[in-house]
Design a protein that fits this description.
The chain is an all-beta fold and about 575 residues long. About 0% of the residues lie in helices and about 60% in strands.
Length: about 575
């Protein structure tokens, strides 16, 4: 019934034509600010109801913003609903609602170790640094090293570059001693981690015949097929390079002469004709005659241009046009990564699916059973990574084999508290129309009208009926059990929390039906999926989670008209 509540409420455009509603989010860390952009909400007292996606809620003025502190880094869905309370009426009218996804990224760490770099059995002043960076805030944007001797090195990464051993660094100290080296890693989302440690550089004995040639290969952002080659000379007697020769692996080479007084860097740039695997080499001859050579293999991969379109396909599996059950499937754009699909079936029900990575083909197929013949519009909304959203709709017609039709159906949607909105739909012939709707709510009260609202006084299960009469004498009575939960009862509870091995979930179902149970990690990735049969009332299930890594997780229980979620922690 919760899923149907989204689309069964009155649209704001039907009550206040000039309504504008929505909100913006400012959340670089776990402190989130929400700015209410709703305007022109009509007369009467109005209130804004905020749901922050972590079980917490707030009520503000209709156009006021709010602030919320999240306890954990995770993905949340924030929703705003605005209700208007007309003068001399206790009933509320939904003016509008909006939901937006929010990811809190606040945890990142950095660490490193260092070892002496050995040449044969003799120690040198070259130190190898092995760094580690971890974050739930996103990809690495920048890595900076400070070696404690007045030199440092930074490297940045773009969308097209892939960090490969970006935390491995070798540095040559000119003198032995104790230095304070630091690693600083900046992540997408603003999280920055830094670690410092002391480094002891040993004393060495100079070897008059010792020299080395090392090199680094660097990308050139403005020239994807180009590379910068940097020579890293070293001589035990501090001799200067006089000649540096390069071979680039594509049949071309070059040599550069230097003076013994040159103090700059030793580098050249080269542009390749095409993608491929290459091996470049550097040969250095030092003042005094010592020579050394080294080579390095690398790959040239010019990135493909990013897609400019945002598309998705919506198709229906061929079926009998008189069948009430229809199946639909989504076609995704090949060069984008889809994250979420939301369905609207045109009869007041909807559903959303968070996709796995890679996508399971079964997640792209959905079956839906309509209550009666008619013409409907089914729509999808596909959310891709990096913010691209594609929407598609298509008509669905369920035909009847004759004109002698007499029937109908009802839909319900949950409003504020235990107020439920009921809508009756008459199924009749082309030359007939409904003339009356009479409701009984199972608690001794009744009402009339195609659409009514009713507040149940106490929790329980009620049999709600509607009788429909048409001009030509068609009479139909439809009844449906409605379960009203207590306000103090959460729909989904988890214990123990934190959990070590076995997690017990208690789900209070409003109807008897099959539900899906999904578990997501702190970054929103689906890691477990189950199917359970739920009865009306409390359902107790046990899940073995001993193999999960330590962290924060969320459990989602969902069906065609129910949705519940709760957070738990794995020790």
């Amino acid at each position: 019934m919760l899923a149907a509540a989204c689309c069964g409420l009155l649209l704001s455009a039907q009550t206040v034509p000039s309504v504008n509603f929505g909100f913006t989010i400012d959340a670089a860390t776990s402190n989130a600010n929400f700015t209410n952009q709703s305007r022109n909400l009509g007369d009467g007292v109005k209130k804004a109801y905020w749901s922050f996606g972590d079980g917490n809620r707030a009520v503000t003025g209709a156009a006021d913003g709010t602030h919320h502190q999240y306890a954990r880094a995770a993905s949340y869905e924030v929703c705003l609903k605005i209700y208007r309370y007309p003068t001399n009426s206790h009933d509320s009218v939904l003016v509008g609602s909006a939901c937006r996804s929010l990811t809190i990224q606040q945890v990142c760490t950095a660490a490193f170790q260092w070892v002496d770099s050995m040449e044969g059995a003799k120690p040198t002043r070259f130190i190898k640094f092995y760094g580690y960076g971890q974050s739930n805030a996103g990809r690495v944007l920048e890595v900076c090293w400070k070696f404690g001797d007045g030199t440092d090195s930074c490297r940045t990464f773009t969308n097209s570059s892939i960090p490969d051993r970006y935390l491995l660094m070798m540095h040559r100290y000119q003198e032995s001693g104790v230095y304070t080296a630091c690693l600083r890693v900046k992540f997408d989302g603003g999280c920055v981690a830094e670690k410092c440690s002391t480094v002891t550089v040993p004393k060495i004995e100079a070897d008059k015949d010792s020299c080395r040639a090392e090199m680094a290969v660097q990308s050139i952002t403005a020239t994807p097929l180009g590379r910068r080659f940097v020579a890293k000379p070293w001589s035990s007697l501090h001799k200067k390079p006089l000649r540096v020769c390069w071979t680039f692996g594509d049949g071309k080479d070059t040599c550069v002469e230097y003076t013994s007084t040159y103090t700059g860097d030793y580098w050249v740039e080269h542009r390749y004709a095409q993608n491929g695997r290459y091996e470049a080499c550097v040969s250095i001859r030092y003042d005094g005659g010592c020579e050394s050579r080294s080579c390095q293999a690398f790959t040239i991969e010019q990135p493909a241009p990013p897609p400019t379109s945002c598309e998705a396909g919506l198709n229906e599996v061929a079926t009998n046009l008189a069948s009430l059950e229809r199946k639909f499937y989504v076609g995704l754009q090949a060069n984008r990564r889809a994250e979420k699909i939301c369905w609207k079936f045109g009869d007041g029900t909807d559903s959303c699916v968070v996709l796995s990575n890679p996508v399971n083909p079964q997640q792209l197929l959905v079956a839906h059973r309509y209550a009666a013949p008619g013409k409907y519009t089914v729509c999808i909304r596909v959310q891709y990574a990096e913010g691209c959203v594609a929407e598609r709709c298509r008509p669905v017609e369920i035909r009847v084999p004759h004109n002698n039709i007499c029937g109908g159906y009802m839909t319900d949607s949950l409003g504020d508290g235990n107020v439920i909105r009921f809508t009756a739909t008459s199924i009749h012939g082309p030359n007939d129309e409904a003339t009356g709707y009479l409701w009984s709510f199972g608690d001794g009260t009744s009402a009339s009208g195609k659409e009514v609202k009713h507040a149940f006084g106490t929790p329980g299960t009620y049999t709600v009926c509607v009788s429909i009469k048409t001009r030509e004498g068609c009479e139909t009575k439809i009844c449906k059990p409605i379960t009203v939960a207590g306000n103090a009862q959460p729909q989904l509870t988890l214990a123990p929390n934190p959990v070590v091995n076995n997690l017990t979930a208690v789900f209070r179902s409003l109807v008897q039906q099959t539900v899906s149970v999904r578990i997501y990690n702190g970054t929103g990735v689906l890691i477990r999926s189950y199917t359970r049969s739920a009865v009306v009332g409390a359902n107790t299930w046990t899940f073995e989670l001993g193999s999960l890594q330590t962290g924060v997780y969320s459990m989602v229980v969902q069906s065609a008209n129910q949705f519940a979620t709760a957070i738990f922690f794995k020790q």
